[in-house]
Automatic annotation (TrEMBL):
Source superkingdom: Eukaryota
Domain Cystatin LXN-type: 1-54, 74-167
Gene Ontology cellular component terms for the protein in this record: extracellular space
A UniProt-annotated Pfam family: LXN
SUPFAM superfamilies documented for this protein: Cystatin/monellin
UniProt keyword annotations, A-Z: Protease inhibitor, Repeat
Record protein name field: Latexin
Family: Belongs to the protease inhibitor I47 (latexin) family.
Organism of derivation: Manacus vitellinus
One GO MF term: metalloendopeptidase inhibitor activity
PANTHER family: LATEXIN
InterPro entries: CYSTATIN_LXN, Cystatin_sf, Latexin
């Protein structure tokens, strides 16, 4: 407890690489939840001991494939009701997972536990610049209350610059 400021947590955890399940790195983090104002995202400071596998090649393949599509990509229900994600949609699923991490961070309190449950709908939006844009409707599962929360988000992505949630 930090008087008149909030609650700070010290964490030690192991991160598993989602692309290489045998690869892990240790992580230490400090998370500060501010008192009172629920509109302030927690402060997070972290240190990784090691590096995760580079996604540069996979990013380039996905970027090139999406840029070369004649029609905008549209997909629904990822994963499906059996938990299956088609291999060709896995990059969209990972992109939503990263972007929803931003939503989770911005909307977390000490009493919530949000996680991505499903992409209900995703639609690519053509742009005149180099970025890929996807409009997502995701379902977030609030583990404490068991509530399923629909959330719309617009995500911009470029392999050079990473992920940005713009709405």
């Amino acid at each position: 407890d930090i008087k008149d400021v909030g609650h700070k947590y010290y964490l030690e955890l192991e991160l598993e690489d989602v692309l290489d399940k045998d690869s892990t790195v240790n992580c230490t983090a400090e998370v500060l939840y501010h008192l009172g104002n629920k509109n302030i995202a927690p402060d997070v400071q972290f240190t990784l001991e090691g590096e995760l596998k580079s996604t540069e090649e996979a990013d380039h393949v996905f970027y090139t494939r999406i840029r070369s599509l004649e029609k905008e990509l549209v997909a629904e229900n990822i994963p499906d009701s059996h938990g299956h994600v088609p291999p060709e949609l896995e990059p969209l699923h990972l992109l939503a997972w990263v972007a929803s991490g931003y939503l989770v961070w911005q909307n977390s309190t000490e009493n919530t536990q949000l996680q991505l449950a499903q992409i209900k709908h995703v639609k690519q939006v053509r742009r005149s610049d180099e970025y890929l844009q996807f409009d997502y409707l995701v379902l977030l599962h609030e583990m404490v209350s068991q509530e399923i929360i629909p959330w719309e988000m617009t995500v911009l992505w470029h392999p050079r610059d990473g992920v940005r949630v713009t709405r």
